[in-house]
Write a structure and sequence with these properties.
The protein is an alpha/beta fold and about 425 residues long. Helix content is about 30%, strand content about 30%. Bound molecules: shikimate-3-phosphate. Shikimate-3-phosphate binds next to helix 5.
Length: about 425
């Protein structure tokens, strides 16, 4: 589907509530399925990725019912069952979080399984979870390190694992395997990645030790509890950037999760002179949440985004590229090589597509460099390469292009944020 986007004249105005966090929605299904009893999950994501996780746990024998379009009831006896006497295939769709986290859960079961993914997911690297899980005693076969993953259920032992990557998916996979492994599992990462798994495990009564970038977990049982899911800062990011770069804008985004391991976009935008205020901070089911006010910011300046910043805003880098195009000076993004392993190679795709509309952006091995304060011409068709975050980032660029742009593949927004366009229309 091709979406035309044209310049808006009077800025973005008003208030919206951002839908549920995708990462937390996945974890809510997984952890309440592992807990014995009934859990109510409120404000569950309507994105296709989280529905993949939901359907997968139904296949694993958990009773999950929709009470309304965003409220779920999960009834579990704390144990998963194979859907068949033979090996059974469980589809993960486009969702890396589903495949990598569920691998950690299935590796220690008494049954065998196969995890499959769509074309994009089948191209994404899986050795990053296969290697540590194998050290724990798991048996996982892949095709050159890619899905489908054939998992032979085995008893697992705890390990101490020093990861080379800062990836919440790898960390969560190992912690979930550790929940069902003998002895202690210790995971250490170079920079702290999102800690929703740790926070939800603690909320559900699991004792874990956290010391800086180290997490330690033992075999544990979970308490079934109701979970209220906060809004997704990665979805809010498109509105944050849109308001910062569109003259006359002044918006409030309500109920945004501001967990410090995810709020890099706010710090970077402030560093760039963006006018952002955090209002009414509180906590929901162990996660920090707030309303955010954002105003058009005329005097944005370039910045360097690197090191510990990267995992705190990894999914926001495509839309940050659009933000940087409107900042005075140069913005440099480095140490972000893992962006090449997302739903698309986000480094080369951002660069090739933003160049088409006149943004001064150069690809590097591990990021990109943008020279800003560009008047964006538009008048081009941008390809989103089946990547939801690229589609929405290009839409935001379209709001300030001199001439209309077209985005090919806009329907991919359904993966994380089907409400994106209607919320944007509420603000214009
Ligand atoms: C996620 C972790 C990140 C992020 C992805 C969701 C998660 O991936 O990019 O969208 O829910 O744990 P990596 O762990 O591969 O960095």
């Amino acid at each position: 589907m091709i979406k035309q986007v044209s310049k808006i004249q009077n800025g973005l105005k008003g208030e919206i509530e951002i839908p549920a966090d995708k990462s937390i929605s996945h974890r809510a299904i997984m952890l309440s399925s592992l807990a014995k009893g009934k859990s109510i999950i409120r404000n569950f994501s309507q994105g296709a990725d989280c529905k993949s996780t939901l359907e997968l746990f139904k296949l694993l024998g958990v009773e999950i019912n929709y009470l309304d379009d965003k409220t779920l009831e999960v009834l579990s006896n704390g144990e998963l069952t194979s859907n068949s006497n033979n090996i059974y295939a469980y589809p993960c769709g486009n969702s890396g979080t589903t495949m990598r986290l569920v691998s950690g859960i299935l590796a220690g079961q008494k049954f065998n399984s196969i995890l499959t993914g769509d074309e994009s997911l089948s191209r994404r690297p899986m050795r990053r979870i296969i290697e540590p899980l194998t050290l724990m005693g798991a048996k996982i076969e892949a095709i050159n390190g890619h899905a489908p993953l054939t998992i032979t259920g085995k008893p697992l032992q705890g390990i101490t694992y020093q990861s080379q990557l800062s990836s919440a998916q790898v960390k969560s996979c190992i912690l979930l395997a550790g929940l069902n492994a003998d002895g202690k599992t210790i995971y250490i990462e170079p920079s702290k990645s999102r800690d929703h798994t740790e926070k939800m495990l603690q909320y559900l009564g699991v004792e874990i030790n956290i010391d800086g970038n180290m997490v330690e977990i033992m075999k544990s049982e979970l308490e079934a509890k109701d979970i209220d899911i906060v809004g997704d800062i990665s979805s809010a990011a498109f509105f944050i950037v849109a308001a910062l770069i569109t003259p006359k804008s002044d918006i409030i985004i309500k109920n945004v999760g501001i967990n410090p391991t995810r709020s890099g976009i706010i710090d970077v935008a402030k560093r760039m002179n963006g006018q952002i205020k955090i209002l009414d901070e509180k906590e929901k089911s162990g996660e920090k949440v707030a309303d955010i006010r954002i105003k058009y910011s005329e005097n944005l300046i370039g910045t360097i985004i690197e090191g510990d910043d990267i995992p705190r805003l990894i999914d926001e880098l495509p839309v940050i590229a659009v933000l940087a195009s409107q900042a005075d000076g140069t913005t440099l993004v480095r140490n972000a090589e893992d962006l090449r392993n997302k739903e698309a190679d986000r480094i080369s795709c951002i660069v090739s597509e933003l160049k088409k509309i006149g943004i001064d952006i150069t690809e590097t091995r591990d990021g990109f460099v943008i020279n800003g304060k560009t008047k964006i011409n538009g008048d081009a068709e941008l390809e989103c390469y089946h990547d939801h975050r690229l589609a929405m980032s290009f839409y935001v660029a379209g709001l300030i292009c001199e001439k209309e742009i077209a985005i090919n593949g806009f329907e991919w927004t359904k993966i994380s944020f089907p409400e994106f366009e209607s919320l944007m229309n509420n603000l214009t």
